[in-house]
Amino acid sequence: MSTFTIFLGLIIIVSLLLILVIMVQNPKGGGLSSSFGGGTQVVGGVKKTGDFLDKSTWTLAVLLIVLILLSNLSLNGGFGAAESKVLQGTDIETTVPEEVPAEVPAPVESTTTDTIQ
């Protein structure tokens, strides 16, 4: 299993978690935080569920961006291998065009015996 495959699996997991956290939130301030009875009440030792969801959204978003950048580096093989092999001239195959015949046949003229008078 390659490093890129591991990063790809982590990206999928973080994306699904990010979707879940965003779907739990309510854009008007409701959502999970309002279902526990208000914004300032303490439920299970957590004061504001909305703050937790906001922080987890930002954390997952930053983690997703970092994973995407790291997967790009692992796909290219690191920092030094990102240069083009064509520019370096290592993998260029030189192809010589086939020789063009020296004499090109002249176009054939049509000979018509019927002339309009």
UniProtKB/TrEMBL annotation:
It is a multi-pass membrane protein. It comes from the Bacteria. InterPro entries: SecG. GO terms for cellular component: plasma membrane. Residues 98-117 are annotated as: Disordered. Its main location: membrane. It is found in: Cell membrane. Residues 98-109 have a biased composition (Low complexity). GO terms for molecular function: protein-transporting ATPase activity. Keywords: Cell membrane, Membrane, Protein transport, Translocation, Transmembrane, Transmembrane helix, Transport. Involved in protein export. Participates in an early event of protein translocation. Belongs to the SecG family. PANTHER family: PROTEIN-EXPORT MEMBRANE PROTEIN SECG. This is Protein-export membrane protein SecG. It comes from Croceivirga radicis.
